[in-house]
Amino acid sequence: MPGAALPTAPSIPSAPVTSAVLDRLRAIVGDKGLIVDEQDKLPFVTDWRGTLAGQAAAIVRPAITAEVSAVVKLCYDNGIAIVPQGGNTGLMGGATPWPMHRGIVLSLGRMNQVLNIDPVGYAMTVEAGCILETLQDTAARHDRLFPLSLGAQGSCMIGGNLSTNAGGVQVLRYGNARNLVLGLEVVLANGDIWDGLRALKKDNTGYDLKHLFMGAEGTLGIITKAVLKLWPAPKDVCTAWLAIRDPKAAIDLLSEAHAASDDNVGSCELISRACTDMVLRHIPGTQDPLKAETEWYLLLEWSSARPRQDGGTGMSDRMEQFLADQLEAGRVLDAVIAQTEAQSRNMWRIRESVAEASRTEGPGLSYDVSVAVSRIPEFIASGFEAVLAILPAIRPYPLGHIGDGNVHFSFMGPKGMDLGTLSQYSAAITRAVNDLVTSMGGSISAEHGIGIEKLDELQHYRSRTELDIMRTIKRALDPKNIMNPGKVLRLG
Amino acid sequence: MPGAALPTAPSIPSAPVTSAVLDRLRAIVGDKGLIVDEQDKLPFVTDWRGTLAGQAAAIVRPAITAEVSAVVKLCYDNGIAIVPQGGNTGLMGGATPWPMHRGIVLSLGRMNQVLNIDPVGYAMTVEAGCILETLQDTAARHDRLFPLSLGAQGSCMIGGNLSTNAGGVQVLRYGNARNLVLGLEVVLANGDIWDGLRALKKDNTGYDLKHLFMGAEGTLGIITKAVLKLWPAPKDVCTAWLAIRDPKAAIDLLSEAHAASDDNVGSCELISRACTDMVLRHIPGTQDPLKAETEWYLLLEWSSARPRQDGGTGMSDRMEQFLADQLEAGRVLDAVIAQTEAQSRNMWRIRESVAEASRTEGPGLSYDVSVAVSRIPEFIASGFEAVLAILPAIRPYPLGHIGDGNVHFSFMGPKGMDLGTLSQYSAAITRAVNDLVTSMGGSISAEHGIGIEKLDELQHYRSRTELDIMRTIKRALDPKNIMNPGKVLRLG
């Protein structure tokens, strides 16, 4: 988030990595697995946006779980802090070390094997360092779908996706990352290996430990392997671009789309005119799918694993009938169904290029929040009012995974205002947005997590009882506070 | 499980419920909320099968969360053990007190209000004491589906369903109970109330606490309210009864059914000829859907929220085409699609009456286990072999939610053998089945939980590391061990 100040640094106790410790690390992971050169460390200690510059005594890159276990045990015995890291593509700094970090970064990047694929059982066993896109491709080669899909998929790693419970554009249908998992292997804070790598859809034998490690951002243990669920590959996909009356129309329309599509709504993305125009301005080759002067659009995609039958009705027939009904009801003002792969790609490109376009456009503020799906229209209206009251010339660029209740509530600074000036308003606007979200029973971080950047906001907005439970769990499972210390929770 | 001996009782420390404590309980919940008469206590201290007879000093029935909180705080301060209880319909004794329990039973039965229903947002907020069937009916009145569906639905309560992460016949499509939840309110061991009652599909703000309380069987806290997810009500349902070649054919068929049905497979239940015949023998009014002499059958149901369109293809057309393909492939030997509601009800009645019929048939043994879906055929074959090696005349009655990898691996004793004699074989057979399940990476309790009855089996089959994590969490969140002590885990 440009313009956001880092929270005050928490105390991160770590014993120093002595040369004796370095020797022992090298004995575990080999020369290939140890990076100590300052220049070579840079990509691991800096976040990809370049806004966080951390430090680490060494980058340690184990090749197998036993090495992860041995490294963690060594750190545990010596009180050395560990920052677990996958693709280091997170938006909140969860995988990037703090500037005063004296311990190691433990990168899972060398553990990148698909260990097993079971198309009949719809499951795949993988190592934590597999690139997300590689897993999508592997599933596709077996006529299956691994549905996790997000902007960083070409470089993020599945271990990080699971540790942060990643979201993306297919959550509406398939759920968050945690819903795509059958089993996990995790290295605990003391170096022990928890083998929960079971390919079971049902297992009621005590506490569900896997859900505790997912979303914990590496503060409770290190995910080393996972059994992932697969789905049938989509065969009949229909993508449409709709000019809609307002956000309320989007909610009502989506509510009816589930039944009309045979529960085959894949994505439903709310996009403002402002976002669309910004992409058209900055991203070469994008085209406006619909000449309309309305303020709100929906990118609606239905997909089925059943190929379109000769003479039968497919997704596009059902979508056509549905859109006719919605036009009739006054929710949809105009609409176009993609007739070619290129048209569909163009629609998706607009949606996916908003972040890139906004970086070109200039400084801005963005909030990844969620409320109950049916309260989105109320949130957008009240949110605009609250933010514009603070900075009347700020320009709203809202966008959202509306079916998940998740709005990327974004603003570009007033024309001509530089980052420094905008930053002066940032704290007040952030507070206003998060106060509103909280008063509506919402979440101040729908899918991006807490990491470093929202440390203080979590502390401010979550109840004392809730923070107490989290701290109790953290202290119980990581008594020496060596697992990604200073992230997610303030313990003090 | 008839014939199974109870585990050795763990030590369950509890201060006595003195008359002074009783007075304070009465002051919190009123006369209506307190049961001390021995006769009136019976339904709360005995399990519904009549196999567990426990004790409690009092049954406490709060009417609101604040009363639950006050009762728990009082117990916490005085070191009094609490058995939380919903409908007391569990199969493992999780909700029934141990015979030496000296504390209270805390029954949620008076907290039975539906607090809010949001059909557009597909969510419903309810109190823990709501009867499951009431919630199904409430959803249906709003043209929505709450998919949790199981034998005890007329008397089990949602709080118990969530605490045990209940399964049932719709898990294949909608997931276990934990997948049907957006938010929870929980009273913790010290009486504090955790308000996690958020209606959010996405919320990445720290550890996911709700998944910790679900499946914990009341040993970490008491679920008092929940926000449940809803789905569109089914409008086009097709039920079929298939004679199939063998369990392998069932797996392969199901693997293809997902795509062929547009991902609309609702249920896929494997039923043996032995189970079918037993039901036909004992349950009046049931009819054999198919005259066939094969050993294995599938009850396959596809359902869509989209009403069948005039001139369009509906579920039954797709099912017909699919069954023709499967006959061609040799997996299906014969099949019938229900043409009337009565025919469909008859098929379901056979499936749902197996438990009742087996009680009439005589003494038996049953194991609720799961393995990876694709390994079910191997499990069934090896399991038969292992059990028949111990008691050659035992009669297998297998049955299963095959799409979940969950087999109810059941046997009736040899003809003429009484319960006492069968019980002598029980320990060896249980060990053989659970050894096999474990060697195949499966679960010794797929959906019924641990409670009292599987306490020793969990201890035996789960790794020391896994048990250690569970105990660490239990001790951290319930340091005085007052929440359902002696269930799920042995702490000693």
Automatic annotation (TrEMBL), chains A, B:
Keywords: FAD, Flavoprotein. It comes from the Bacteria. The keyword Zinc-finger does not apply. Transmembrane segments: none annotated. PROSITE patterns: FAD_PCMH. The keyword Protease does not apply. Gene3D superfamilies: 3.30.465.10, 3.30.70.2190, 3.30.70.2740, Uridine Diphospho-n-acetylenolpyruvylglucosamine Reductase, domain 2 (3.30.43.10), Vanillyl-alcohol Oxidase, Chain A, domain 4 (1.10.45.10). Residues 52-233 form the FAD-binding PCMH-type domain. Belongs to the FAD-binding oxidoreductase/transferase type 4 family. This is Hydroxyacid dehydrogenase.
